[in-house]
Design brief:
It is a single chain. Helix content is 76%, strand content 0%. The chain contains ten helices and no strands. Helix 2 crosses helix 9 and helix 4 runs antiparallel to helix 5. The protein starts with 12 loop residues before the first helix and ends with a helix. The relative contact order is 0.14.
């Protein structure tokens, strides 16, 4: 029987469940394999001390709150029509203003003493709102796709963070330099559509692949690095060398998650 042109085909529920089970299996296998391969040299101090665990949990709490603020604010901005105005604006203006606002609030928050709660959390909230304003056009996409992407990101970042938290002390801190070089390459590739003509299709295709897959690898590595940096800072804070500041620590993890 031929389908009417006005009839909308229904999704295959069995096929969808199969894909979800397959994705779940891949994520689970990846967690086990990653932990087995990269995490064989476990901590030599008998486990994570209480102070480090509390510091890490506090950092993860702020990270979750920050990502939640970004999601809620981005959806509210999209419903208000902000996304349409943003898409109609010159992309160089959006890039310049967006970077200035994000970097300004981020460095202002990082430079603020953690004892100055009002200024600290005001700048932190401003940073999250700046991210929301830039990311709000994502809600033009199908909500199911966004939910799936969010689920995969949480699974990937959560598993990598687990490896970083339970690995040998300072095992991944050497990654800082190579990761900065990698993120520079990813950032340059993301600017390719703004400077290259549409006729350079092959170059644009490869720049998109570098931006997508290179970004996954680089920011996965940054998650390892940042989690171990949080634990390193926890040990320094416990000895009184630096101030305890989970807000600053959470900004780095938020950027890993979003990128």
């Amino acid at each position: 029987m031929k389908q009417s042109p006005l009839e909308v085909p229904r999704p295959n529920t069995a096929n969808l469940k199969g894909r979800l089970l397959y994705a779940g299996g891949v994520v689970g296998a990846t967690v086990i394999a990653t932990n087995f391969i990269f995490n064989r040299e476990t901590r030599e101090d008998g486990g994570m001390p209480v102070y480090e665990r509390e510091y890490l949990n506090d950092t993860f709490l702020h990270t979750g709150l920050g990502v939640g603020i970004i999601g809620v604010a981005a959806q509210a901005l999209h419903r208000s029509g902000w996304s349409y105005r943003l898409m109609a604006t010159n992309p160089w203006v959006v890039l310049g203003v967006g970077l200035a606002t994000s970097i300004g609030t981020m460095y202002g928050c990082v430079a603020t003493n953690p004892n100055n709660y009002v200024q600290k959390y005001t700048l932190w909230t401003g940073f999250n709102l700046a991210q929301a304003a830039i990311l709000s056009p994502l809600f033009f996409m199908n909500p199911a796709i966004l939910a799936q992407a969010g689920l995969y990101t949480v699974a990937m970042m959560g598993s990598i963070a687990f490896v970083g938290a339970t690995a040998k002390q300072e095992k991944y801190l050497y990654l800082g330099g190579p990761l900065l070089a990698g993120v520079a390459l990813v950032a340059v590739s993301s600017l390719a559509p703004l400077v290259l003509p549409a006729t350079a299709a092959r170059t644009l295709l490869w720049s998109e692949r570098i931006w997508l897959y290179g970004g996954l690898a680089v920011f996965g590595g940054f998650t390892l690095y940042d989690v171990q940096k949080v634990l390193h800072h926890a040990r320094l804070a416990e000895r009184g060398i630096i101030a305890k500041d989970p807000v600053n620590e959470s900004i780095a993890l938020e950027l890993d998650f979003l990128n």
